[in-house]
Amino acid sequence: MSLLPGKFYLDDFFDDFSPISKMSKMDFMKCDVYEKGGEVHIEMDIPGYSKEDISINVDEGILTIEASHDDVKEDEEKNYYRKERVTGSFKRQFTVGSIEEDKIKAKFNNGVLTVSFPKEEKKETKKFIEIK
To answer: What is the residue-wise DSSP string for 99-128?
Structure first.
């Protein structure tokens, strides 16, 4: 984990010389994770994607949210000065513990994906050993 900020003063000056692929993929799927009403909620920004472009799955306690976009068809008559809209696939994963997939709810509205599921109850696994 880097403690340095993602952008420095005058970084945008060099944007014309730097391909957008150098940007962090997490710049495209920023999210907030919070607890409310006994549930965990993940709100993720996925602008420019439709509901059909997004897939959510859970496997062995890992919740995976993936968004993929086909290439935007370019019109050969257009003479682009700059092209920043990115296509491709992006993925974020979260450790959620053992939750049943039928208890996970998801909705997508205005470019924001909201995934909610019950908070996992912590089980006391600590065992004390008697010293003899």
So the answer is: --GGG-EEEEETTEEEEEEEPPPPP-----
